[in-house]
Specification:
about 400 residues, alpha+beta, Beta-Lactamase, Phosphatase 2c, domain 1, 2 domains, six-stranded antiparallel beta sheet, 17 strands, globular, Bact_Sigma-Reg
């Protein structure tokens, strides 16, 4: 049986583009696996794409696998539930194991392994789960040195602006003891200026949602400058309001007020749930507390880069265990239907209610699907949804 240290060592030694082939060899030797495939979630969270779509050299004998729906079938069942799933077509026949590949809440895809019936034991299933976990971490490291896994995540070509935006993002989901985060951008393959960022330290979590004005490359370049200016200030240990001020100065120095960025900054104290907020533009903040959904009104301050040396003030908010916060860009709440109806706060509140039982990682895509139905189109304008579920610590206020 494959032991986790041996698997980790083998994947560390493998070339960055040979991780799947290495796993195939390991599982064939240790469990008699007759088929091993890796499916990665695409940027739009609509399909699980086989790695062979990007690298035919790793394809097994026979017909190569095809993309599968992300919300249906055994692959989608494992991906959506984040639980392993086993299936066989007949008693005594080979067993297909579907295993979520996830790293710190970021759902990368699904590893599928076919085992002979006599080798498909509970111990084997547990070993396969450990392998999937190790593979996920190895993929994140390997992405520094190969484009293979990023190529496999796309069902069509990204625009240059979208390529820049996805490269800037931290991930689509993240989780810790105190919180779980999910976020999604649309249209995934042609996004312009919307972006989000987060960073967790021992004592605090910082989130930002930004929207650079304009379209295409100019909006993406503007957002890049803003996000990196905010990161630079954050990593220097500067208070939240001063982070906004320094990013404001960087943007004004470059564009002299001709371009600006709307931003919502939040810093959460992990031990207490005390939160600081700087609203510098259009993103809206919503909260679901128990059965109540409401928009959190924050004093609107000037977008970053609009004027020289703008002074920003952080406001206070207390989040409680069980709270869900959503941040949405203007591409959501300002969307209109083909008849000219505004999506607005009422429809957004309904969407938040409708997704109450979903985990944070699933909420943004579900809200954006509801928005697409309202617009009666498969694509929507530049839009972003970020969801944060707050669990808090055992001794936090509200426990």
């Amino acid at each position: 049986m494959t032991h986790s240290p041996e698997t980790a060592e083998a994947l560390r030694a493998a070339a960055p583009y040979d991780l799947l082939e290495t796993v195939r060899d390991l599982l064939a030797a240790s469990h008699g696996a007759v088929l091993v495939d890796l499916f990665l979630a695409d940027y739009g969270l609509t399909a699980l794409n086989p790695l062979e779509a990007a690298d035919r050299e790793t394809a097994p004998a026979g017909d190569p696998p095809h993309p599968v729906p992300i919300h249906h079938g055994p692959h989608g069942r494992s991906f959506g539930s984040q639980e392993p799933y086993a299936h066989t077509d007949r008693p005594g026949g080979p067993v297909d194991h579907y295993l979520p590949v996830t790293v710190r809440g970021e759902r990368l895809g699904v590893l599928t392994v076919r085992l002979p019936a006599d080798r498909s034991t509970r111990e084997a299933a547990e070993a396969l789960m450990r392998t999937a976990d190790i593979l996920g971490h190895a993929i994140l490291v390997a992405e520094r040195d190969t484009d293979l896994y990023r190529r496999a995540r796309r069902t069509s070509r990204l625009t240059l602006a979208a390529e820049m935006q996805w490269h800037l993002l931290p991930a689509r989901a993240c989780s810790g003891e105190e919180y779980a985060i999910g976020a999604q951008l649309e249209p995934a393959y042609a996004i312009h200026g919307d972006n989000y960022d987060w960073a967790a330290d021992r004592d605090e979590l910082t989130l930002s949602v930004t929207n650079g004005m304009g379209d295409g490359i100019q909006a993406s370049l503007l957002t890049h400058l803003a996000v990196n200016a905010l990161r630079n200030a954050r990593r220097a240990g500067i208070p939240l309001a001063d982070q906004a001020a320094l990013a404001d100065q960087a943007l004004y120095e470059q564009h002299r007020g001709a371009a600006h960025v709307s931003t919502l900054l939040m810093r959460f104290e992990l031990s207490t749930g005390r939160t600081q907020i700087v609203d510098a533009g259009s993103p809206q903040l919503w909260r679901r507390r128990q059965r109540s959904v409401e928009r959190i009104e924050v004093d609107a301050q000037l977008p970053l880069g609009m004027f020289e040396e703008t002074h920003y003030v952080a406001q206070e908010l207390q989040v409680l265990p069980g709270d869900r916060l959503l941040v949405v860009s203007d591409g959501v709440f300002d969307a209109t239907s083909p008849r000219g109806d505004l999506y607005g706060e009422r429809a957004l509140a309904r969407a938040i209610h409708a997704t109450s039982l979903l985990p944070a990682a699933n909420v943004p895509r579900a809200v954006l699907r509801a928005l697409a139905e309202f617009r009666e189109a498969d694509t929507i304008d530049d839009a972003l949804v970020l969801c944060l579920d707050w669990f808090g610590r055992p001794n936090a206020p509200g426990r």
